[in-house]
Design brief:
The chain is α/β, with parallel strands linked by helices. About 55% of the residues lie in helices and about 10% in strands. The chain is globular and about 95 Å long.
């Protein structure tokens, strides 16, 4: 009797689930929405606001800081240009204390003799760099000013009250027992549809019909995949969207590709992989031209550059999507752009991406989590909410080298996305500081010394 009741209950729940999944697929196929996700996001913001008021009252000395944090969490993702400039200037000045300090020292005095006390100047700058480290903290999850009912939060907010603990438990049940299975189902359908559709398109001869068909099925597949994260994406300035050439963007997560591919079709460039990721790569390559290279070819920069240049010279091919940082940064800043893509083309289409961290952490910390774990973390978060800005195409100036061009594009992306513009190499996540970077303060100091 009990088994029959269980089967009946599951059968009763099965039909609504099928209807909801079918509705999501149909809406994703049409590229439309009936507003359920946006209403869900607004509801979660109200829940966060209610939970924030349950935080214990701070001491009198901390009240002013807490008020500022509460005002900050109420703001929209889009920051004012004035605030962006102030943040950029502040972090730029602290991004390299030793270099900045030496430049100021050089500005304030003329040539001088070497003195033993100069060693203390370098020690002071070194201590400043350790205390105000703006590099390594970009490789870990950003802290939030208030609790968003997820596991990752400030330690002082782990337990606030029995009521909030009960609410957190309810949230866990909703995220892991309802949202996660539903999202995994949607993701499975999206991936299968991507593989099947690209396999079918691969049998067609190269023509404008094949390109249009690939665009239709590609947008459909990635929109379905975006629904697997409950993605709420706001695209700005779509008139600047790239139709060919090279498109560059800041990089927070592998999901960036899915986010951008919901609105435009791109060709990918990267190293060939095996396993499930290799299946996806081969599926994409059947439908249209992508640039996949072997591990042995990755060291040959000239070969990769030639293939990239050949691709962008063909106006019938899709724009190439590149993340010049070369690694994922934690949604707070933009780090040094590699110059390779800026040597190949004199016209670049920049894109800025900014996630709302209140709904979940989109940053992929590859040193702690593998690709599958990262995707499961996003799927078990409240939602994936972000803004995407298409910037006007930027052209290399006369007598401007690739490094200067890359830095100029990076600065525009940081300014538009409300991110901090840093000159450091994102490769510092896994590598030591390059000798060339260590030589900069040495050269600045040597210019201050008198030479007979």
């Amino acid at each position: 009797m009990g088994e029959q009741l269980l089967i009946a209950a599951l059968s009763f729940l099965f039909l609504p689930v099928i209807i909801v999944v079918a509705l999501v697929i149909i809406l994703a196929t049409c590229g439309t929405s009936i507003g359920i996700r946006k209403a869900y996001v607004k509801l979660m913001l109200k829940v966060f606001e209610a939970c924030k008021h349950k935080v214990p009252v701070p001491s009198p000395g901390e009240q002013d800081n807490d008020t500022e944090e509460e005002n900050e969490i109420k703001q929209d993702n889009t920051l004012s240009d004035a605030k962006q400039d102030n943040e950029d200037q502040a972090d730029k000045s602290s991004s390299s204390p030793s270099v900045k300090g030496l430049e100021q020292l050089d500005f304030g005095m003329s040539k001088k003799e070497f003195e033993l006390s100069d060693v203390m100047t370098f020690a002071k700058f070194g201590m400043e760099a350790i205390i105000d480290d703006t590099v390594t903290k970009r490789f870990s999850a950003e802290e939030l000013p208030s609790w968003n009912l997820l596991t990752r939060t400030q330690k002082d907010h782990q337990f606030m009250s029995i009521r909030l603990t009960a609410l957190w438990c309810v949230g866990c049940f909703v995220r892991y027992a309802i949202l996660l299975p539903f999202r995994i189902t949607i993701a499975f359908i999206g991936v299968m549809w991507l593989i099947i559709s690209t396999a079918f398109i691969g049998y067609l001869r190269e023509s404008s019909f094949k390109r249009k068909l690939n665009e239709f099925f590609s947008l459909m597949s990635f929109r379905i995949l975006c629904r697997a994260f409950s993605g709420v994406i706001t695209f700005h300035n779509r008139e600047n969207m790239a139709k060919n050439g090279i498109c560059v963007a800041n990089h927070t997560s592998p999901v960036d590709v899915i986010i951008l591919s919901c609105d435009n079709c791109y060709a990918m460039i990267g190293q060939s992989h095996g396993g499930f990721l290799g299946v996806i790569q081969r599926s994409l390559a059947r439908a249209t031209a992508h640039i996949w290279f072997e591990r042995s070819e990755a060291k040959d920069r000239g070969l990769v550059a030639r293939r990239l240049k050949s691709h962008i010279e063909d106006k019938n091919k899709l724009p190439v999507l590149i993340f010049p940082e070369g690694t994922c940064i934690n949604n707070t800043s933009v780090m040094m752009f590699k110059k390779g893509s800026f040597e190949v083309s004199s016209v670049i289409y920049p894109v800025a991406i900014k996630y709302d961290p209140r709904f979940g952490d989109a940053f992929w910390n590859s040193s702690k989590h593998n690709w599958t774990q990262h995707l499961l973390q996003i799927m078990s978060s409240w939602a994936l909410v972000c803004d995407v800005w298409y910037l006007p195409p930027m052209t290399k100036l006369e007598n401007e080298d690739a490094v200067a061009f890359a830095n100029r594009v990076k600065s525009e992306i940081a300014k538009k996305g409300g991110l901090v513009d840093l000159d450091w190499d994102g490769g510092l996540k896994r590598e030591n500081v390059k000798e060339s970077m260590k030589e900069v303060p040495q050269e600045l100091y040597s210019k201050m010394l008198k030479v007979d």
